[in-house]
Amino acid sequence: MTSEHRKPALFGGSEFEAFKGGEDPAQISRLAHDTASALLGRVRADPDPGVIDRLIEYTDLHGIDAIAELWSRAASHSLPGALWRIYLLRALIRQDPEQSSFLFQKGSELSVTIDPVVAGATSPTGPKEITELADQILRGIFDGDFAVALERAAAFCRIMSLGAAAEADDTESDSAQRASEFTVRANRFAETASEFAICAKLWRTDSLD
């Protein structure tokens, strides 16, 4: 995920479609920041479990498009940008939990850092476990330490990047196209991990707005 924010699709070779928006970029930016701040502030002030459950399940019922219209154009190192990426990450995992869990497990086995511990997935990580992890990370932005939730998301993406890069190497001799698709995924996950990590640091210094 780069500065161009698009509809969720598998981290593959195809590009995401750009969202159309209003004519006033400044107004769109204000709306994104205002809604992100208001939502997060209200829920964190009174973290009712039922409300949080509905926020987590919102995109399951209404799709990711409504969230994207609010936050997908925000800068990557901003509160709405961070929220968009968290929701998008969850949507991507739920879109293909089998492959997501496969890449995550592969990346976890290759990792030489504490990222698997930080991400907090149950091992071994199957489709059910990785879906639950996505929900836990999203829940953490509402009823836990927001920076920790972002750091978990960053660790998750770094592991996925490792797994996708390894799969690219493993499939290169059989299919150059498939290897290229996994390389693209690896790069996107790595970039998104960096964005989450920067947002976490900004949050800790009250600089994420």
Description:
This is DNA-directed RNA polymerase subunit beta. It comes from Agreia pratensis. The protein is an all-alpha fold and 209 residues long. The chain has one domain (25-204). The chain is built from nine helices and no strands. The chain has helices at residues 25-45, 49-62, 65-71, 79-95, 97-110, 115-119, 127-143, 146-171, 176-204. Helix 3 (65-71) runs antiparallel to helix 4. The two termini are 20 Å apart. Residues 1-22 have low confidence and may be disordered.
Overall outline: globular
Task: Please outline the major beta sheet.
Answer: none
- What number of domains? 1
How many helical stretches? Answer: 9
Strand content: under 5%
* Class derived from helix and strand content: mainly alpha
Chart the SSEs and their pairings:
Blueprint: H1 25-45, H2 49-62, H3 65-71, H4 79-95, H5 97-110, H6 115-119, H7 127-143, H8 146-171, H9 176-204
Task: Briefly characterize the structure.
The chain has 209 residues and is mostly helical.
Search tags:
209 residues
